[in-house]
Design goal:
Phosphorylase Kinase, domain 1; globular; two-stranded antiparallel ribbon; alpha+beta; Aminoglycoside 3'-phosphotransferase, Chain: A, domain 2; 12 strands; 2 domains; 6-stranded antiparallel sheet
Length: about 300
């Protein structure tokens, strides 16, 4: 949907016309150029978005969401993108600005023109991801609390993966989903078995810088045919968690995983323990989208023998 300078009468263009004056000053402050026109993005529960063409012919991407928490959510997304960019491993959109204006959070990014994956796409992603995961820290977690989509996540740091994953990821999400009626107190025993399995089966490795929300929709293809990462939930976690999410939702070529293993082999048995990591995104999706993902959580419990 293209929205020009004239006032449109309905739909996304109407709302953009109402918002345009609201955001023009922000865009000018962060880019030095005014807005020529906008294309409204697909509706999302987490934000509204626009592809903006500026008077100097640059294209940028604007995300907005009302509320004080939204500004912090966008700040953490920007921080995550900058953390990924600083590694020099895989491209990400440049951050042009973020903050809050008139009670609405915003994030302004470089626009990534899309293209078809080139012949080296899978190798670039596999090698780049292995290099990203070699970026380490003294502890699992992050320097502050963060988000995945609109769900707050604890950044509290732990020396070991087992305690970080159990206490800061699985337990809070499971408790929230149980409080909403997706699970019952009788399921607590199954989660207790999961915590033991994480301790027994997940290999001890140093903290790895992870994307944190690595499904195929968060990997674009730039004009050079190479992968570009977007929408991260960055923290220091277990590198297998990124790979497990890639397998969970699909959309990645097998060659990507083969190249990753060539660059940094996994401890044998990854596919048998993969479900332990997949419980995290499935609990997130249960909170965001409802009961069918709770059934997927139960299916993983069954597969793992919990």
């Amino acid at each position: 949907m293209v929205c020009g300078t004239a006032l449109a009468t309905r739909g996304g263009c109407y709302f953009w016309a109402m918002d345009k004056a609201h955001w023009t000053a922000i865009v000018v402050d962060n880019t030095g150029s005014a807005i020529r026109h906008a294309i409204a993005g697909d509706p999302s529960p987490n934000s509204r978005s626009w592809r903006l063409t500026l008077d100097d012919d640059r294209e940028v991407f604007l995300k907005t969401l009302p509320g004080e928490e939204a500004a912090r959510m966008f700040r953490m997304e920007a921080q995550g993108l900058e953390a990924l960019r600083s590694t020099g491993t895989l491209p990400v959109p440049g951050v042009l600005g973020y903050g809050r204006h008139a009670g609405t959070g915003f994030l302004l990014l470089e626009w990534i023109p899309s293209s078809r994956p080139g012949p080296g796409w899978a190798r670039a992603l596999g090698e780049g991801l292995a290099s990203l995961h070699r970026q380490s820290a003294d502890a699992f977690g992050w320097q502050e609390d963060t988000f995945i989509a609109s769900i707050p996540l604890s950044g509290r740091q732990h020396a070991g993966w087992t305690t970080f994953y159990g206490q800061e990821r699985l337990a809070p999400l499971y408790a929230s989903a149980r409080d909403k009626g997706y699970f019952h107190r009788s399921d607590d025993l199954r989660m207790a078995r999961i915590y033991r399995m994480v301790a027994e089966q997940c290999p001890e490795e140093p903290p790895a810088l992870v994307h944190g929300d690595l499904w195929s929709g968060n990997v674009l293809t730039g004009q050079d045919g190479k992968p570009v990462l977007i929408d991260p939930s960055v923290h220091y976690g277990h590198r297998e968690s990124d790979l497990a999410m890639m397998h969970l939702f699909g959309g990645f070529p097998l060659a990507c995983f083969q190249v990753y293993e060539e660059a940094w082999p996994l401890t044998p048995g990854f596919h048998r323990r993969m479900g332990l990591y997949q419980l995290f995104p499935l609990l997130v999706h249960t909170l965001l989208f409802g009961g069918r993902y709770a059934r997927s959580v139960r299916a993983v419990w069954d597969d793992l023998g919990a």
